[in-house]
Design brief:
about 475 residues; alpha/beta; two-stranded antiparallel sheet; 16 strands; about 40% helix; binds zinc ion
Length: about 475
């Protein structure tokens, strides 16, 4: 009686159709085709909130429906560095500070979610405003005992066969002896990438005029080292939003989907300098790149968007001293980063400092205590100690340091450290599977949750 099996199958068929008709989302929810992971380096909830007050709007990242929070400690410290933090988010494993996607002994390599995406036949992209070989992007595409080994990381990125790699850091891709090269060998990785069929992009025009075809692969290197702060960008260097738009266009051609990591890498650097304007400028740029992902997800609903940080930097505080008020408008007026203002011509003629503050921060009249701070800085430069500020590591120019101080005081933004802190980090999420990112968990869970949504278990292997 042939008809019965037909009836049985027809029953199943109807059930499936009903389900899809009833709640298509329910069916798609668990397995996103694409994942875009945004990492604001050094960005936690305070940085997000200050930016909303400075720019007087809801940030795109804070419009995503799901909110989570995670701890960031590493294997050897309550306070992580970016290498151990990104390793946890990319592989689901803890390691020691400065180690890249390996165990602390450097014997076992941990597969990253980006490598697993490749294994699934998906396309993969990594974007950053730091060097593309720096700790965060490196943790998604390479394995090494030391984050400092950027020459080697550049080679591993070549071997990764990822489809899109864009950021700064040309210095690790050109042979030693070449202008600005930081390689210790004669390897010309630009030509190695070209031989593998990559388009090499080195400025904004090249990015804008890129002809995207089915198998387009891109290596974009837009500066020798880190890209300039957003407030200091010049015309020929693209924004993170422009890089994201092109990356998504390339990667979304793959019917199996893609994984894209987008890092706002220099929020951290500015926060290390306790520089509020620089921090906010790069955070704004990062949020513009998030807005590109949200726009894309409207036409590609099977896209999971995750926006988090790797750790908090600077111990940023909203409000200082005794007062119940802040002045975020002070930061909104600033058109150049504190670092950009504190270097260049001004180091030859430090008395320009007053004009620089007027020109780029709109500060016409200084308070007596501010005048004193500036005179000390100017004198240090005249004494040849211009790069020995109290924040020697991250904000060595006495003028950059002093501008950061004046703007922090005036805007009522406080700082507890020149380094990272152990604050838990906020994550917002939207799209299929985003509900699994609700709650309070650990940074290793970020990697594990992504892998679970794709039904993959991340591997590890002994390094010979
Ligand atoms: Zn940092």
């Amino acid at each position: 009686m042939k008809p019965s099996c037909l009836n049985k199958n027809r029953g199943w068929l109807l059930f499936i159709i009903a389900l899809t008709l009833l709640t298509p989302q329910a069916l798609l929810a668990a397995t996103p085709k694409n994942i875009i992971l945004y990492i604001g380096d050094g960005m936690a909830s305070t940085q997000r909130r200050v930016a909303e007050e400075v720019y007087k709007r809801r940030l795109a990242m804070n419009t995503l429906p799901v909110v989570g929070l995670y701890t960031t400690y590493s294997e050897d410290s309550i306070i992580t560095d970016s290498a151990a933090a990104a390793t946890a988010m990319a592989t689901g494993h803890k390691t020691e500070n400065s180690v890249i996607s390996m165990d602390a002994e450097g014997e076992i390599a941990y597969e990253t979610i980006a490598e697993a995406a490749r294994r699934l036949g998906k396309s993969v992209g990594l974007l950053t405003t730091t060097r593309i070989t720096h700790a965060t992007p490196a943790s998604f595409g390479s394995h090494t005992e030391s984050r400092g080994d950027e020459n080697n990381i550049a080679i591993q990125l070549l071997d990764s066969d990822f489809d899109v790699l864009m950021g700064g850091g040309r210095q690790n891709f050109v042979p030693k002896g070449t202008n600005k090269s930081r390689r210790w060998d004669n390897r010309n990785l630009l030509s190695d990438f070209r031989k593998k069929g990559y388009e090499i992009l080195q400025d904004r025009d090249a990015l804008k005029s890129l002809q995207i075809q089915k198998n387009t692969r891109v290596l974009g290197l837009f500066s020798d080292s880190h890209m300039p702060y957003y407030l200091d960008r010049t015309e020929e260097i693209p924004s993170l939003a422009e890089m994201t738009r092109v990356a998504v266009k390339i990667l979304s051609q793959n019917p199996k989907g893609f994984f894209l990591m987008v890092e706002g890498g220099r929020i951290d650097h500015a926060a290390h300098g306790n520089a509020p304007a620089g921090t906010m400028g790069d955070l704004l740029e990062f949020d513009n790149a998030v807005a590109v992902g949200i726009e894309f997800s409207k036409s590609a609903p099977s896209t999971l968007l995750l926006v988090g940080g790797d750790h908090e930097t600077g111990g940023m505080g909203m409000g200082i001293g005794g007062g119940y008020f802040m002045k975020p408008e002070v930061i909104k007026k600033v058109t150049r980063s504190e670092f950009g203002m504190g270097y260049g011509e001004i180091m030859k003629d430090p008395d320009l400092a007053y004009d620089v503050l007027k020109k780029y921060a709109g500060i016409e009249k200084l308070k007596p205590e501010e005048k004193k701070l500036l005179e000390v800085a100017i004198q240090h430069i005249k004494d040849g100690k211009g790069l020995k500020s109290p924040n020697k590591t991250y904000n060595p120019s006495w003028l950059g340091y002093t501008f950061s101080n004046i703007l922090s005081q005036r805007s009522r933004i406080g700082w507890t450290s020149y380094a990272h802190t152990g604050h838990p980090v906020m994550l917002t999420a939207g799209g299929p599977g985003s509900e699994t990112f609700m709650g309070f968990y650990d940074n290793t869970d970020v990697g594990l949750k992504m892998a679970a949504l794709w039904g993959v278990s991340l591997k590890s292997w002994k390094v010979e």
